[in-house]
């Protein structure tokens, strides 16, 4: 708890005068480490289906949870973290925002960098569905080792890291608007999603990101042994899956957040 409190207080939140494309991209690059390492930790456990299984109609269930174990762990963790002010940070977004208590800690004055309308953008429902329906089956081995609590804890860390990275699109969008209001203004006033998406997309950057996260998965996730031959190296998480995660989900969802933010930027 103290660590979390210190983490919340010692935020490396970007101030308005430090806000530029280089600084926000530097943060996105640093967040790649957290995402790749959280996937590697989740890959320690097999799929462990009972972590996600909840059938209210099953009379045999002695389970008293109102949902699956992973729902319970995420909800209860968010309630605890809300009490120490985690979700007063513009960089943090809860998966269950409707059930959170007010902070018990003094308010922290975060730099007011974003337009107030940013607070209404939360796409965690989409992130939750992507993670459990698309991503997890790609890299979690089949099987059940009974470690359902630890498995759910790893899922929580993956969800939090992905949510933070994708919603960081609000800061990227703010930078892009400030750098070129004459370009973004007409598309915003026309509420033209396609024009905004075209303006904010840098395909060369996306290719670099996909290559870098695959390389991080290789370096961070390499099974190390002293007599490995080059062709026998194994990885805890397939680097191609990490590259696909970014190409098919993380960057498109980050761009969705950017578009949603920009549509509201002049309201
Ligand atoms: O770096 C940017 O310009 C971003 O908008 C971030 C990001 C990303 O999600 O990594 C998204 C869209 C761009 O096409 C390139 C990269």
What labels would you give this structure?
267 residues, mainly alpha, Chorismate Mutase, subunit A, 10 helices, binds prephenic acid, Chorismate_II_sf, CM_II_prokaryot
Please describe the topology of this protein.
Elements: H1 2-9, H2 21-42, H3 69-83, H4 124-139, H5 148-167, H6 169-179, H7 181-189, H8 193-200, H9 203-220, H10 239-264
Helix pairs in contact: 2-5, 2-9, 3-5, 4-5, 4-10, 5-10, 6-7, 6-10, 7-8, 8-10, 9-10
The structure holds prephenic acid.
EC number: 5.4.99.5
Domain Chorismate mutase: 148-258
Organism: Aquilegia coerulea
Termini separation comes to 38 Å
Number of domains: 1
Helix/strand structural class: mainly alpha
Give the CATH level 1 class. Mainly Alpha
Strand content: under 5%
Give the total of beta strands.
0
Which CATH-level-2 architecture? Answer: Orthogonal Bundle
Listing every helix as H and every strand as E from the N terminus to the C terminus, the arrangement reads: HHHHHHHHHH
Q: Tell me the overall shape.
A: globular
The biggest sheet amounts to:
none
**CATH third-level topology:** Chorismate Mutase, subunit A
Overall pLDDT, averaged? 92
């Amino acid at each position: 708890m103290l660590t979390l409190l210190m983490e919340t207080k010692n935020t490396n939140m970007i101030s308005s005068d430090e806000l530029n494309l280089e600084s926000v991209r530097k943060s996105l690059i640093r967040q790649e480490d957290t995402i790749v390492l959280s996937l590697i930790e989740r890959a320690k456990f097999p799929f462990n289906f009972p972590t996600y299984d909840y059938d209210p109609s099953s009379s045999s269930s002695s389970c008293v949870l109102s949902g699956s174990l992973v729902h319970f762990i995420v909800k209860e963790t968010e309630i605890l973290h809300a009490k120490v002010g985690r979700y007063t940070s513009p960089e943090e977004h809860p998966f269950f925002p409707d059930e959170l208590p007010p902070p018990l800690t003094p308010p922290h004055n975060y730099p007011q960098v974003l337009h107030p309308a940013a607070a209404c953008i939360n796409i965690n429902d989409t992130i939750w569905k992507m993670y459990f329906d698309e991503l997890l089956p790609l890299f979690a081995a089949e099987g059940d080792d009974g470690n359902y609590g630890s498995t759910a804890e790893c899922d929580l860390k993956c969800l939090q890291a992905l949510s933070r990275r994708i919603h960081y699109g609000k800061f990227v969008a703010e930078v892009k608007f400030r750098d070129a209001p004459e370009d973004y203004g007409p598309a915003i006033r026309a509420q033209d999603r396609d024009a905004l998406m075209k303006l904010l997309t840098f395909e060369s950057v996306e290719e670099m990101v996909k290559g870098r996260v695959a390389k991080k998965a290789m370096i961070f996730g390499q099974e190390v042994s002293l007599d490995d031959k080059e062709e026998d190296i194994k990885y805890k998480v397939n680097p191609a899956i990490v590259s696909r995660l970014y190409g098919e989900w993380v960057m498109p969802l980050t761009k969705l957040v950017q578009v949603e933010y920009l549509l509201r930027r002049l309201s």
